[in-house]
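anyone seen this seq b4? input:
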Amino acid sequence: MNKRIPLIDNDGEVRELTAADMRTFKPAGEVLPLALQKSLGMRARGPQKSPTKVSTTIRLSNDVLQAFRATGDGWQTRVDAALKDWLKTHTTAQPVDVTDHGRSRR
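predicted toks r here
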């Protein structure tokens, strides 16, 4: 049986949270009422109307990865731009329009 230690003691003091406590927490957007989220200034992000990118896994050489990461935030966008630039000058098995901000047209 899972015996959870109460977060608040008999005096009303909140104890220090543990890593196990943190794993049981849910995102605020899932548990807070919408009215409270709005008053706290939380914005709900809905699903993308037309997804422009696809999540994937790619293996890169360490030097390439480190060079892009060294450029700071947005490095993945710069990898995407570099690959789009490469596609402009190389033939692919099927033509891909890379000028439409990530939305492929065949």
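Residues 67 and 75 are 9 Å apart (CA to CA). The longest helix spans residues 75-89. kinda curious what u guys think
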